[in-house]
Design goal:
Length: 158
């Protein structure tokens, strides 16, 4: 299998730690998701292929999804790829939620805006809610917040 360049591998690790899913990163880089997952495994951020769940992990995965956790957030929790989580959920007979549902309930948006205004980073909040930083930035803007530049000095992606 072809590998990503060292520069792209560093980008993958940085974006994954900021809360982006491997799918989002692969789309942004215009590469296959398998290359992104391989770079994350090499960096020690994902378990190797063939992840098998213990009975306790299987039960926890289902509980977390039923509580509203996104597949990227569950993947972050278990240190696996979001596609792996999705596959386990489907095998368990879980009905997947449509992607178009808002991931931050409307009644929680003011709290998230307040936390952001108090200094929590876009990256931290986005990872907590399983959102891309650009998606969270858009939610914050719609709620009237002024979005700060990220620590890297770049504007979040729209």
């Amino acid at each position: 299998m072809k590998k990503l360049s060292p520069g792209k591998a560093i980008y993958v690790v940085r974006e994954y730690r900021a809360g982006k899913s491997s799918e989002q990163i692969a789309e942004r880089l215009r590469v296959r998701q398998e290359l992104v997952s391989a770079a994350l495994r090499e960096a020690g951020l994902l378990r190797g292929g063939g992840w098998s769940l213990t009975d306790a992990e299987s039960a926890e995965l289902l509980v977390l999804y039923n509580r509203g956790w996104s597949t990227p957030k569950i993947a972050w929790h278990f240190e696996v790829d979001p596609t792996t989580v999705r596959n386990h959920l489907l095998r368990a007979g879980m009905q997947m939620r449509p992607r178009s549902l808002p991931r931050i309930p409307a009644h929680e948006v003011p709290t998230v805006v307040g936390r952001y205004k108090e200094g929590e980073t876009l990256e931290h909040l986005a990872a907590e809610f399983g959102l891309a930083t650009g998606t969270l930035a858009n939610i914050l803007r719609r709620a009237g917040a002024v979005v700060r530049r990220s620590p890297s000095g770049r504007e979040p992606e729209p």
